[in-house]
Amino acid sequence: MWIHRCGPASVTGGCHDCYMSDAEGQQVDVEGDDEADTGAPETQPVESGLGPSEESEAKTAEAPTTDAAGKQVAAKKAPTKKASPRKSAARKKAAAKKAAAKRAAAKKAPPPKYPRHPVDAALRIPNAILIQNGGNPATREEAAAYLGYDAVSGAFQVEMSSGTKYGFLERLGDGTYGLSARARRALVPESDTDRVEALREAVLAAPDLGTVYNFYRGENLPDEQYFDNALTNRFSLPVDKLGEFKSIFRDSLRSAELLDESGERARLLDVGRDDAHKDAPSAKKLAPGMATPTVASGDSCFVMQPFVEPLGSYYEAVFKPGIEQAGLKAVRADDDIFATGKIIDQIWRGINEARVLVAELTTKNPNVFYELGIAHALKKPVVLIASNEDDVPFDLRHIRVIIYDVTDPFWGQKLIDKVADNIRAALSNPEEAVFNLAPPS
Question: Model pTM?
Answer without folding.
Answer: 0.58
